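Q: What would this complex look like in 3D?
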Amino acid sequence: MTELGLIAAIKEMLGPAGGRVLVGPGDDAAVVRAHPLAVTSIDTAAEGVHFDRATHSATDIGHKAMASALSDLAAMGAQPGEAYASLAMPGDLGGDEALALAAAMADLAAAEGFTLAGGDVVTARSLVITVTVVGWADSEQELVRRSGARPGDVVAVTGALGASSAGLLCLEGAPAGVEQDTADRLAAHHRRPQPRLAAGRALAGAGASAMIDLSDGVATDAAHIATASGVGLAVELAALPVADGVTEVARAVGRDPRVLAATGGEDYELLFCAPPARWADVQEAGRRAGAPVTRLGVAEGAAGLRLVGADGRAIEGLRGYEHG
Amino acid sequence: MTELGLIAAIKEMLGPAGGRVLVGPGDDAAVVRAHPLAVTSIDTAAEGVHFDRATHSATDIGHKAMASALSDLAAMGAQPGEAYASLAMPGDLGGDEALALAAAMADLAAAEGFTLAGGDVVTARSLVITVTVVGWADSEQELVRRSGARPGDVVAVTGALGASSAGLLCLEGAPAGVEQDTADRLAAHHRRPQPRLAAGRALAGAGASAMIDLSDGVATDAAHIATASGVGLAVELAALPVADGVTEVARAVGRDPRVLAATGGEDYELLFCAPPARWADVQEAGRRAGAPVTRLGVAEGAAGLRLVGADGRAIEGLRGYEHG
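A: Here is my prediction, written as structure tokens for the whole assembly.
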């Protein structure tokens, strides 16, 4: 396949004009019918930093790049919109791999209700993928920022934590004593994270006051909410929902499972706050959206994040995964 | 400067919330008040392909990446909006260079009325910059597509051509007999192209029927309008406005200046069509926007691009610059 042929094949994966997309691929820019508010994020994944071609297939790489971008919109509670993807490809990326990577991006976008409305494909010295996602809202009240937490709010999280970082440990060499099925399942979490878009909208609608996606881990991301909201968040380490198999992997490598769950990145679950009066609604909304929520602690007056151990004492020095 | 310090410094260059930007940097996504139509393009520049750090300063690279993205919106006639920039940086890019690159992007965006509303900064194995630009329109009638040319329309171009490709030749080693001042001026055109945003809006408002920005050269880009519009475009090579100094450089390297002007890429001028009845208005609009326009030929019934030589015969085989 020639480079131009490859570019043409990838461009055919872009959604045609239709629905809200008035001008699709094939013009200088896409033209889309807007809602009153545009919610936009740009996110880049680079080989050797965010993924490794030795352990991630082209499909994994495309999926993860799109998932990571969409997760930012999940954390805002935005309605689905459009994705724009750029693929900077080195010469040793095969045509079939490039097509699989682009198809994985298009598939995940479509599954979440987004139209892949534009893109760029260029030659480069290393594989770098950038995804810009645009979601929509009809009013500011639909959206949840990081800054809305108030003292007394419940602090909670969707799903379970630690699967992605345990999966990465398994990819780097299955720890002794961990069953292959467990290692494979955890590795799949790392390779193909699922953004929580439906849950994000449901939690926003049910009254979440502040929200962030867990890309770097609770220890880092909860601190972002604390800072942006000017409140303290007291999170009990023992309350963290640890994903199946994480305990097994953590013990095999001599780490505390709950510390792994608190500091491991790329789970792409949602950490959020909600007023106590909305807690029952928020629980129900998460459950209906397929994302059961767990109470982790409470927002207090003193600013900053306080991770509390089983003995009731604060744990110092825990820091999330920095991936870029 | 630590990597996190650098990221923080670059993030500070992002415009704060204000005006139409309700949520700026520091949340999971930017939130912007929309117009009825969003006009969006994503554009990537990679080192070794679109620029070379040996011949382009960090400021050149940032400027050019932003200019190339904005030029797509110029060709649509969109109103200014927001830019979102991703910087994938190798370890050998110094902190000062990264800051200069980001500042050049922010400066050009601001000069054209765009807010740099979001970004991402990651480590990578090679330097890759992706810019997503969002412009706005209040109705479809404000915008110009590639597909609106009709038989009988005038074909025209803004500014003068060939300066960027002549400048690239000068960067690769000043051709013998070309004065240094000329070589420097042309090299500056290559390094810091100016997108034609004001001219694009003016031409759209004055009645342009189809428009494209000249990233690959007339020989390729005019063919895109011909294909999208289902018309033929007869362009007289002799009519091409050749930029000052291009003739000197072309002769020094044994090339025809007009062929260089027709096939050289990255001039970022606008090629457009307009009904004969609107030609006077379009000329005046270009002049007022600081972009004098030159008539190149006419749209006809037979599809495709026909480049016509001084002898009235079609010139075959000319193809624009493919930059990635």
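A: To summarize the key features: Chain A touches chain B through 66 residues (CB under 8 Å). The mean pLDDT of chain A is 93.
Q: Very helpful, thank you.
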